[in-house]
């Protein structure tokens, strides 16, 4: 087996664009403008002008969401393993012609 000379060659740095405020007045148009050059590298970095502020898209006065209640004991892997085990036992007894009824405490088997 012949060993090849394998060396890591770091990729070239990604281009960094620093548009003026006039160029960045329409960010999507600016991106379309630099796209042919930036696509050659596969990635690029755009540093917006220092005074540029992105428009805030969320109306904080009317924005509401309902948080999901997630019980910590249901996140544990052993709980999933236990439920899979109980499902397997129930399927086994069902194939044997018997029906297994699992006891539930507070809605949990």
From TrEMBL:
Any one of the GO BP annotations: methylation
One of the Pfam families matching this protein, by short name: JmjN
Domain JmjN: 14-55
Family matches, as PROSITE patterns: JMJN (PS51183)
GO cellular component, one term: chromatin
Keyword Oxidoreductase: no
Keywords: Iron, Metal-binding, Methyltransferase, Transferase
InterPro entries from the UniProt entry: ARID_dom_sf, JmjN
GO terms assigned for molecular function: DNA binding; histone H3K4me/H3K4me2/H3K4me3 demethylase activity; metal ion binding; methyltransferase activity
Protein name, per record: Putative lysine-specific demethylase 5A-like
